Protein 1
Amino acid sequence: MTELHLWLRHEARTTERRTPVVPDDARRLVENGVELTVEESPQRIFPIEEYQAAGCRVAPAGSWVTAPPDAVVLGLKELPDEPVELTHRHIFFGHAYKGQPGAAGLLRRFAAGGGALFDLEYLVDDTGRRLAAFGFWAGYLGAALAVLRHRGRLRAPLVPTTKDELDETLKPADTDADFTGLVIGALGRSGRGARVAFATAGADPTCWDLAETRDLDRAALLRHDVMVNAVLATSPVPPFLREQDLDTPDRRLRTLCDVTCDVGSPLNVLPVYDETTTWDEPVRRLRAQPPLDLIAIDNLPSLLPLESSADFSAALLPHLLDFGVAGAWARCLDRFRQASREHGPDEGEPHAH
Ligand SMILES: NC(=O)c1ccc[n+]([C@@H]2O[C@H](COP(=O)([O-])OP(=O)(O)OC[C@H]3O[C@@H](n4cnc5c(N)ncnc54)[C@H](O)[C@@H]3O)[C@@H](O)[C@H]2O)c1
């Protein structure tokens, strides 16, 4: 039996309906001796009663700030701006190790409070593979939105939905027989999701991964109606598309969906736009004639909060049951310490409880 006290917090971002632990998995944690406190949250896709029924203790939204010092605070996205000093151990996606905006500020808050960040992006096995990720649903949604746009059936603003509802809109009845789709990064999690969504829409996309882009054929790329970029770039490669490619006279490409959304990064393989798109305005026209539309939404899985939470929670559960024991958490903490040294303030190394 572990003596872990987990504190599942309310998400500060109002559109964030996902959760890293769903009620069924909360029950498993409680049955395995984890003390689990769940904050009330008006937007979480699962009602608090389901957590209560699973044996969790309920606390008000945002009360993690006064949680016992040994509690491990669990969430997905950014913390609120207060308190300035973070004293707890936190598990969430910090987006703070690559010099992102706000990164140094977050690391400074941990240094000031003596807390620690277990960043979910860096919870990896001993080969470096991510243990819990939302990629599949990001790719699924990316391809689905791109196909809907191509068919002139994408409605804005986007709102969270369910897979059944989404699939209903994707039914292949009116698929253009000549339709050509392309997924780059097709062997990854997002790429797989994109392929499944294309299949649901009645399309059989061209699939490229590392082998097919090594000697990049941009003319072939431009011969697809829809392209979904789902790569995880780890070192710079020549861009898949440059400004001049968009002006190729016989370009067939009409819809470009960038699931990767590395905009502004030196690793960006699509330096043809400089701002992501949003749920309110999911599409931006990059070229008028022939038209070329961009979809580049950086929180795609939040549009399917139920399915993406369930998958993520299932992947995270075994590691939560091993919290503090397994090597993955030690690696995660090492990464935090390294980032704090590299990017953080010079106020001494933070310590973990
Ligand atoms: N937009 C969103 O809401 C959202 C959500 C989740 C993930 N993502 C992003 O999606 C990307 C993919 O995530 P994932 O979980 O699928 O990663 P993954 O590691 O499972 O898959 C990435 C794939 O890209 C391939 N790849 C890497 N470089 C390539 C290249 N130059 N050419 C062709 N293929 C290449 C890899 O071989 C791998 O198959 C990441 O950048 C991730 O941050 C975006």
Note: The chain has two domains: 5-131+305-343, 135-303.
Protein 2
Amino acid sequence: MGCGISKVDHLSPGQGGKQAWGSGSSVGGDCPTLYVWPGSAPCRAVIMTCAAAGIDVNLLEVNLPEGHHTTEAFSEINPHKTVPVLNDKGYILWESRAIMMYLVSKYARKKKLYSMNLKERALVDRFIHFDIGILSKAVNDYTTPILSPGSPRAPKADGNLRTALDLLENDLIGVQYATGSHVTIADISMVASLWMLEAVNFDIGKWRLISGWISRMKALPFYEE
Ligand SMILES: N[C@@H](CCC(=O)N[C@@H](CS)C(=O)NCC(=O)O)C(=O)O
């Protein structure tokens, strides 16, 4: 498609409402557009997936601190008012993991990141569901009150995070990556979730296999610091 991962622009809501946000067709040519915010873990996961799979996308920044995701124009694209959002020639999709599955299935030349083989794919799905339901939730419950002082502290946030990390540590016994010897979108999704722990200086060193796996992920060319 010839776009690479290129940042199109910062569009603010005042720049033309629904059309400016790219509804109806992708912004910036034939490539799908991703609405993202750089400080967002799920956005990082989708961007890393595109880089890993060699998928060309245009990135469009939605400024969360300035509330651009809460505008009427953006709500018309994603009524949940969250990023990331994909616009693939008018086909709109939100939820980062659904976007990763869609993009790899549709555009990646090699499907190793999200195998077409039913049993291999189900193992990836298992980790993706673990991530959305347990791991990323535990990380968010732990980090949110620290990063946004004043927000309520979830009960058992500390214990739930340690339990989630214990589960992942156990899953990583004897493997290089979550489902075996090669990276999948499950690794990308989970490592992006855990990235938030760095922001609060949580010491993950006790979980030795997770620490090693994070180091391996960080050494990959598509990893986003
Ligand atoms: N489960 C969603 C989470 C999306 C999400 O909550 N994104 C945050 C940024 S990390 C957001 O848009 N927050 C804006 C808000 O909730 O007001 C996904 O994986 O895409």
Note: The beta strands are 5-10, 33-36, 57-61, 85-88, 91-94.
